[in-house]
Amino acid sequence: MLGVSAFSAIGAEQTVNKQNVRCSNNSPECYAKAHYNPVRKCKQAIDEKAEFRHIWLENASQQIFEKYLWHDQTKRTIQIFGQQAKAINSLGILTPLQYFCIFNANTGEIIAAAFE
Questions:
Q1: Is 98 in contact with 87 (CB distance < 8 Å)?
Q2: What gap in Å lies between CA 1 and CA 24, rounded to an integer?
Q3: Which domain of life is it from (predicted)?
């Protein structure tokens, strides 16, 4: 049992070190997660604007938004992208979708969100 606990502590320590490296590079993902990261609000805004049936492929091992980029670093606006959704056509066939959300990481305000 002691070996497992020691291994878990080492793994947690390595994760923290990796996160510190990402944050020290002024990563938009790290900045968003440290301030406002409105993933649920973005997903809801995308759902509301969709003009077709779709499903989300929610998976514990993958994030809904996989890529974070600065939209305007001086204004602290971030654009996030994902591919964990599919459109459903009239025959019930699923087609992969891409989507994005732009938000202010200081306030959590959603600026734009939609499927592409």
A1: no
A2: 35
A3: Bacteria
User: For 34-46, what is the mean pLDDT?
Assistant: 94
Domain ranges of the chain: 2-115
Contacts of 106 (CB under 8 A, 6+ apart): 35, 36, 76
Evaluate if residue 6 carries a pLDDT over 70.
Answer: no
Per-residue CA distances from 56 to 14, 24, 59, 87 (Å): 31, 33, 9, 9
What is the spatial distance between Cα 59 and Cα 42, in angstroms, rounded to a whole number?
A: 17
Closest CA to 103 of 20, 14, 43, 13: 43
Contact 79, 100 (CB under 8 A): yes
User: Global pTM?
Assistant: 0.76
User: Are 68 and 29 within 8 A, CB to CB?
Assistant: yes
